[in-house]
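Protocol step 4 of 6: structure prediction from sequence.
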Amino acid sequence: MECSTSTCSFRESALHAINEACCAFAEKENMRVISANTGIGKSQLRNKLNPSQTHKLSVDDLLLITKDSGNYCIVNSLLLNLDMVAVKVERNSTDETLVKRALENSMYAGELSRLALENGGEIRLPRRKRTELLMRAHQSVSNLVLLMNDLENKTSGVSPFLSMGLDFIVSGSPLPGLS
């Protein structure tokens, strides 16, 4: 069977992106600590993250090393090739007001704009600047997901209507028949 040129180009670009993410992960993280925490041998882990080796990273290993390190670059690379974006949402995030979440979103958008202006004229971004831009973008998207979650939680069910009604009455709005 012949593979179409679009399929081959997708495969090549996806493999290149994943290989780059594996190399970045291996450079940034402490393999000895991850190896000890996950039970994967140190040299075996290095080989799985090295694109020139025959050993490949399995899904189970990817989950273990991602969860242990908190570094989601490989998972993000995989999902970006599927035209999707991953968002890390803190499980212990506090309930914030909608106004605070919206203002935080503006803050993140401002930071992204500043970084884009600083690096707008450059043809290639150094890895450090690219990482900083990606980190800010992920923070912004994570905040937007929390904002959407808060909106859905505050506007579903009977409780929001009761609270909005109580706010309406307490604010001094006249009630028909009682004014």
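Step 5 (inspection) to follow. The mean pLDDT is 80.
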